[in-house]
Amino acid sequence: MLKLLMLAAITALLLLVEGGMSARTQSRSKRELASPLHLRGIRDPYGSYCQRRGGCCPGRNDQCTVPYLDTICYCDLFCNRTVSDCCPDFWSHCLGTTPPYPPSSCERNGHRFHSGATYKENCNLCTCGQNGRWECEHHACLIEDDMIQEINRRGYGWRASNYSQFWGMTLDEGLRYRLGTQRPSRTIMNMNEIQMNMNGNNHLPSYFNAVDKWPGKIHEPLDQGNCNASWAFSTAAVASDRISIQSMGHMTPQLSPQNLISCDTRHQGGCSGGRIDGAWWYLRRRGVVTEECYPFSPPQQTPAEVARCMMQSRAVGRGKRQATAHCPNSHSYHNDIYQSTPPYRLSSNENEIMKEIMDNGPVQAIMEVHEDFFVYKSGIYRHTNVNYHKPSQSRKHATHSVRITGWGEERDYNGRTHKYWIAANSWGKNWGEDGYFRIARGVNECEIEAFVIGVWGRVTMEDMHNHHGRRK
């Protein structure tokens, strides 16, 4: 009996020893097979771990650990194996060598940033990669310093400048949000040009500006912001000037681009682009109110947002319209509707365009905007080829519409004469020459002479009398 008890005790002891060895083996296996800490790069590569612990351990010591972010790391020599679980400073502090894993932090301006951190370099987003390097997008930016410097260095006859409102935008975004006039259809492009009598008695001066001839009747440039609707801004601007001139100053409305953007929705895209022939149709058939009554509201969510129409009108006879809604703001109650007659197309001959402007006022023109036009500051603009060596994504253009208000010419230091148009843009008064630009005349620069439009306002003596009585 005693022998049986002793045999049972020995068996139990052997099982206990075997179990302990198995547990140790299992523990060792767990550490050997543990997920490597630095598979995606060393996090916090410059942190103090083994050094803070006070030293390193020889061989294998599973207690030679330090808390490391959301886990632990080791400072024993065993950690430096195929599957590494060493602390970030093990190699430098314990072995005096370089870590075999790249740090997962990136350096910028003397500061370290963790993996996944981002910053924006002009229009390109840069992200700290798991290899310790910044990985940046490669978009062509709307404002490129090298392009500005090259234009100013070469002496093209105009100066370039940086604009804060364009900084951080890609070229594609500039073309998508800052222009917005669709090229006319083939039918519209085949529209008959008016025949103008250009006899020898017509004297065209070397310089003319509608602002000088009709003071107080030519309106200042507006800013379309990131609303791709130059189709509405240029149409409203030309109609405003023509009505003011035609009414001899009795009516000087600054017409509302927002009225067109929000209400002229027939085959139009609002802040996503539109057609000038559609805008003139609406101005003739429906009419618009003033900017004061229906102020421009830049899209808040996306540039493609189209605001709900807040102005309606009804026919009151003889083609005239009358508003049936109050002004959509609390500061104005004058909701008069202004209309135009059908637009007419001018010849591409520069003299005929000049005569039309001098006789009847500013005209509307379509032009192609290239990447260098956005940085125009002053001088006579001509498209340059400074980006010829760059990829095609840096050399793009799209269609825009502007208001031509005059012309002029100037001589360079070699005595050569350079002719130009004076035109109003819709990018605000801090762009270009107080919101205007000069562009080469007589050579169809950027196709600005290919499709030019004039118009008459629908103005009656009754209209002039009513507005005259309202003026202060």
From TrEMBL:
It is found in: Secreted. InterPro entries: Pacifastin_dom_sf, Papain-like_cys_pep_sf, Pept_asp_AS, Pept_his_AS, Peptidase_C1A, Peptidase_C1A_C, Somatomedin_B_dom. Keywords: Disulfide bond, Glycoprotein, Secreted, Signal. Residues 52-98 form the SMB domain. The keyword Glycoprotein applies. GO terms for molecular function: cysteine-type peptidase activity; peptidase inhibitor activity. SUPFAM superfamilies: Cysteine proteinases (SSF54001), PMP inhibitors (SSF57283). GO terms for cellular component: extracellular region. Residues 1-22 form the signal peptide. Its main location: secreted. GO terms for biological process: proteolysis. The keyword Iron does not apply. Belongs to the peptidase C1 family. This is Tubulointerstitial nephritis antigen-like. It comes from Sinocyclocheilus anshuiensis.
